[in-house]
Design brief:
Elements: E1 2-7, H1 13-22, E2 35-37, E3 43-48, H2 53-59, E4 64-68, H3 69-74, E5 81-84, E6 90-97, E7 112-115, H4 118-128, E8 133-136, E9 152-157, H5 161-165, E10 168-177, E11 179-183, H6 189-209
The structure holds adenosine-5'-triphosphate (ATP) and zinc ion (ZN).
Adenosine-5'-triphosphate is lined by residues 7, 10-12, 49-51, 68, 70-71, 88, 90, 156, 158, 177.
Length: 210
Amino acid sequence: MLRLAIQKSGRLSDDSLNLIRECGISFINSSLKLKTACTNFPLEILFLRDDDIPGYVADGVADIGIVGQNVLVEEGKQELTVEALGFSKCRLSLAVPKSADYNSISDLNGKNIATSYPNLLQAFLDEQGVQAHIHTISGSVEIAPSIGLAEAICDIVSSGSTLISNGLKEVERVFKSEAVLIANQELPQEKREILEKLLFRVHAVQRARK
Ligand code: ATP
Ligand code: ZN
């Protein structure tokens, strides 16, 4: 039996479950349960917070998982990547108030930037030769400028409408992300074989979607 960790409830959940279903794998999905065994494939699904998925897979509590690259790389666990899945595409971007006079990345020198992704942001600022103060907050990042916590934010964007409704404009793209399948690096042979079977089906689903 292979254990798959997916997000319990959030932007990855529906597409993750749909992928498994389209692979012809059946399970009973009750919103109250934290795990469910599939009925026609040797797979057990664990429902977790997305941030916990890389750690659980690295530790072997789950064998495989589906998570956004933004979370995976932020947690320094990119070596677990098996392959990109093509959904939950988004980007991590820097944004400043609409009215701010912004010409280039060097305008951020000495500024305060609020984000939930301090490692990805620090790597980008280092690469750009910018020194700024990073304030790590866990949510509602987009309100930080209006409450005076920061002059800029670094947050996940897909359409950009959340930025606009908070009076912000996107000024730099920091990281491009999509959902990825990850796996523990020391899977026993028996689990590896189940993973191969699952991947075979995933590839068929992806070909059919094109
Ligand atoms: P959890 O409660 O599990 O911690 P969360 O609030 O941290 O959930 P979500 O907002 O559900 O996370 O986002 C999960 C992942 O989906 C993100 O890490 C990112 O990879 C992707 N994502 C986030 N926002 C979008 C978006 N607007 N469009 C597409 N994908 C997104
Ligand atoms: Zn999360």
